[in-house]
Write a structure and sequence with these properties.
30 strands, six-stranded antiparallel beta sheet, disordered C terminus, alpha+beta, about 525 residues
Length: about 525
């Protein structure tokens, strides 16, 4: 036997037994499908009916996507003209109405979906299964199926199906006789009447010559009174333009005191006009009598760039970083309240219409909310930041010495401020060249509601009194579209129209007091 073991036959026999022992556990071992990463078994005993893995899942088949209800632009690799969202450097404010473009895009998408998606075939309804009686306990035996031809030829005259080609071609309105390159559904959509879009006049109804109009972002030299009189500061003079008769009159001339006008502001109701100067003086004139009513020689130590009225309270913001509040009924020269919340020049002031808080914007990129009535701000957990905007905890004392809220989200000077006349407590703010954003704030809880990248320096903001729309004027931009007046729909922030015509920055903006033609009576003062 020892010779048999050492013989070549014995060696081959032992090698065969070893291979069988090694292959035994391998056959019972699960394999991993490299395509679907699905563990499968090589033996048939593991493939039980209860196994959720099927042959199609193991080996798969071609995947044909369904594009019936998907996004047609994405499914067919159609890119929008605007392209992906890019930084503000490459953003261009369109010159045409976005509403018209959106309507055209919606029609195009509908027609594309109709043309590309094949019409759903008419499927015959399956016969209803007869209901069995409750007393029947036995099932019917299977019957032998009758012979049926696969191809059945019939005469068109005897066919009752109206969808056959011959019967379908008998219809005069069939697509085969149509001369249009699109289907009937698309043709009906194109021929249907469209919703008339709002028409916005793109040309100014009047152009005023404004020599010596200062090209300074931090000044406010134009304001419109409730008596329909426009006040404009030109150099050392202030001129009044009456809208109903186009009469022009000179209100004052400060050349004798070697001073220059830096800001003008009308009282909400009346004929008083407040004038701030570069030397820090503040004048109050009566436009009816053209007489000086008040003179504050030392209102501020530096130029006064922003003025705002709240009934008989006149607030002024200066380059000395202070906000002063004066009661014009009192003869005292000293303000009854001083507010210090900015570290650089105060270039924007705006009181809420309901006599609520005061908003101030500065060259330090900050927005402060003040309340002189002593109201305390709403307590917010973790008040260092609130919502999506950065908010500083200003103490919330409500005494007027510290702001109720202080917003740090802007990255450039904030001159444009506007309170929403339709929603209480909503404030719109606009940033300068390095920011280019319009942001909306809820001043009740100190949160930022939304923001809009305009792609251009935001110089002014004014709300419409008759519709929930916002008008903004722009200046410097890194794109070719500059010096525009844009109308935005709130809260969708879609552009309604853009007005052009200025060759320089639109630094000053005033609105007519009637409200009926608020956006159409924007006076364009050209240098």
């Amino acid at each position: 036997m020892s010779g048999l073991k050492n013989s070549p036959f014995g060696k081959r026999l032992r090698a065969t037994h070893q291979d069988n022992e090694e292959d035994g556990p391998r056959r019972n071992r699960q394999r991993v499908n490299p395509i679907f990463y699905t563990a499968t078994s090589s033996t048939t005993k593991d493939a039980t009916p209860e196994s959720p893995i099927t042959m199609r899942e193991m080996y798969g088949d071609r995947f044909v996507p369904s594009r019936d209800a998907g996004d047609m632009r994405t499914s067919y690799h159609l890119m929008d003209e605007s392209g992906p969202s890019t930084p503000s450097k490459s953003r261009i404010i369109p010159t045409e109405s976005d509403a018209l473009k959106e309507q055209a895009n919606a029609i195009f998408t509908s027609i594309l979906h109709t043309e590309v998606t094949p019409p759903s075939p008419r499927r015959p309804t399956s016969p209803q299964r007869p209901t069995t009686s409750s007393s029947a306990t036995t099932t019917l035996p299977p019957s032998t199926p009758t012979r049926k031809r696969i191809f059945h030829y019939t005469s068109p005259a005897t066919s009752a199906n109206p969808s056959t080609p011959t019967r379908r071609l008998d219809t005069p309105t069939d697509e085969a006789y149509s001369m249009s390159p699109v289907r009937a559904e698309s043709r009906q959509l194109l021929e249907s009447p469209r919703r008339q879009l709002r028409s916005v006049c793109k040309t100014p109804y009047r152009v005023l010559d404004a020599p010596e109009l200062a090209d300074d972002f931090y000044l406010n030299l134009v304001d419109w009174s409730n008596t329909n009189v426009l006040g404009v500061g030109l150099g050392s003079c202030v001129y009044l333009w009456t809208a109903h008769n186009a009469a022009v009159s000179k209100l004052c001339d400060l050349a004798g005191s070697n001073d220059t006008v830096s800001s003008v502001s009308w009282v909400q109701k009346g004929t008083l006009l407040a004038i701030g100067t570069l030397s820090g003086r503040m004048h109050i004139y009566d436009a009816n009598t053209l007489q000086l009513q008040r003179l504050y020689k030392n209102a501020h130590t530096q130029r006064i760039g922003a003025l705002a009225w709240n009934s008989h309270i006149l607030s002024s913001g200066s380059r000395d970083r202070m906000v002063h509040h004066r009661d014009v009924r009192e003869p005292s020269q000293r303000p009854f309240k001083r507010c210090a919340g900015h570290r650089q020049e105060v270039c924007g002031l705006k009181w809420a219409r309901d006599g609520g808080p005061l908003a101030s914007g500065g060259n330090d990129n900050k927005v402060c909310i003040w309340d002189l009535r002593g109201s305390k701000r709403a307590s917010v957990a973790g008040s260092s930041t609130s919502g999506s905007g950065s908010v500083e905890d200003a103490g919330g004392s409500g005494s007027g010495d510290a702001p109720l809220w202080k917003f740090h989200e802007h990255t450039a000077a904030v001159k444009a401020l506007a309170w929403d006349p339709h929603v209480s407590g909503v404030l719109a703010t606009g940033g300068g060249t390095q920011d280019k954003h319009i942001r909306f704030w809820n001043t009740f809880n100190g949160t930022m509601l939304s923001e809009l990248d305009t792609g251009s320096q935001v110089c002014n903001l004014i709300w419409s009194l008759t519709s929930h729309e916002l008008v903004s004027t722009h200046g410097f931009s890194s794109t070719t579209a500059q010096n525009q007046i844009c109308i935005w729909k709130y809260p969708t922030l879609n552009m309604v129209a853009s007005l052009t015509g200025h060759t320089h920055r639109v630094l000053y903006l005033a609105m007519s007091p009637d409200g009926e033609s608020a956006f159409f009576d924007v006076i364009q003062v050209r240098t």
